[in-house]
């Protein structure tokens, strides 16, 4: 079996399981506290459907061609077995950590990733809330190319990323409390990811891990969910809309407006790679382009 075939089997199984899990979550919270809002849930599903269609087309047209081109120029050939696929999974999770951190700290990438963080609710449907333009930002797959250069098979790369994505689905819930301390220390858990989706100052830009939280602990981006400060979900700049098209475009429009403000071109372009909260010094705004 190839990696692509294994990924396809996984995706076919995930669809019905995800629907069942969402239904069970709805039943569990129906008599407890609201974690779903109809308009928000419909926006999540609409954005998710758009992202799936866009990624299917773009992977077929561009990503597979690029990864095959890189693999043809690999420096070695790493055999496919249980051990190497497990190693690939850990290394790909490190790539995901780097990718995810870039998506938060580079505004061009944040333009698409903010869609995932724009919901003010935390439930399983939030996991599919993604932008159809994610691949255009670049950070979503370029961070994995070095693993293909050294000789990992692109098909199995796609498989381990699909497994990682499936694991992340269950992180988007309020129905699972903190787990055993050893699990919480090594693995990314729903508790860690609830903090990641919060806009409380103590939680912002923390817990970037996909499957493992170890990389956050190593690189100083870990934050524990505290019972005395429950997560306040959503982006710092509230979207004030449930329209999937507006949600997909509004941060990109805001970035374009920031770049168009008068000033030296060098200062204007810095908006592209600076963090989302960065603002030009007032004197730079006051200067006219040279």
Rounded to the nearest angstrom, the distance between the terminal CA atoms is: 60 Å
The number of strands is 0
Order of helices and strands: HHHHHHHHHHHHHH
- Percent strand equals under 5%
Overall pLDDT: 92
Query: What count of helical segments does DSSP give?
Result: 14
Question: Which value, in Å, is the CA radius of gyration?
Answer: 20 Å
Task: List low-confidence stretches.
Answer: none
Kindly name the structural category.
Answer: mainly alpha
Using the alpha-carbon principal axes, give the shape.
globular
Largest sheet: none
Approximately how much helix is present in the residues?
55-70%
User: How many discrete domains?
Assistant: 1
How would you describe the overall organization of this protein?
- The structure is a single chain.
- This protein has 14 helices and no strands.
- The chain is mostly helical and 290 residues long.
- It has one domain (3-245).
- Helix 3 (82-105) packs across helix 8, helix 4 runs antiparallel to helix 12 (244-260) and helix 12 (244-260) runs antiparallel to helix 13.
Please give a quick description of this structure.
This protein is mainly alpha-helical. Helix content is 61%, strand content 0%. It has one domain.
């Amino acid at each position: 079996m190839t990696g692509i075939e294994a990924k396809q089997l996984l995706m076919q199984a995930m669809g019905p399981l995800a629907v069942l899990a969402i239904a069970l979550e709805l039943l569990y919270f129906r008599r407890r506290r609201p974690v779903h809002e109809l308009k928000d849930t419909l926006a999540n599903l609409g954005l998710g459907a758009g992202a799936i269609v866009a990624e299917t087309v773009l992977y077929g047209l561009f990503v597979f061609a690029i990864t095959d081109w890189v693999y043809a120029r690999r420096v070695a050939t790493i055999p496919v077995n249980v051990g190497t696929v497990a190693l690939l999974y850990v290394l790909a999770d490190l790539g995901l950590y780097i990718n995810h951190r870039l998506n938060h700290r580079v505004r061009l990438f944040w333009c698409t990733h903010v869609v995932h963080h724009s919901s003010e609710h935390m439930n399983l449907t939030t996991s599919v809330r993604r932008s159809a333009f994610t691949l255009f930002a670049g950070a979503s797959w370029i961070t994995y190319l070095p693993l293909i250069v050294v000789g990992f098979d692109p098909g199995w790369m796609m498989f381990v990323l699909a497994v990682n994505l499936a694991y992340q689905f269950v992180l988007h819930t309020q129905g699972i409390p903190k787990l055993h301390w050893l699990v919480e220390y090594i693995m990314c858990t729903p508790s860690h990811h609830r903090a990641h989706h919060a806009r409380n100052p103590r939680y912002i830009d923390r817990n970037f891990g996909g499957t493992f939280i170890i990389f956050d602990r190593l690189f100083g981006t870990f934050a524990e969910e505290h019972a005395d400060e429950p997560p306040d979900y959503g982006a710092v700049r509230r979207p004030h809309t449930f329209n999937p098209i507006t949600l997909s475009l509004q941060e990109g429009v805001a970035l374009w407006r920031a770049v168009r403000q008068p000033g030296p071109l060098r200062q204007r372009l810095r908006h592209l790679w600076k963090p989302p909260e960065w603002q030009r010094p007032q004197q730079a705004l006051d200067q006219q382009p040279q």
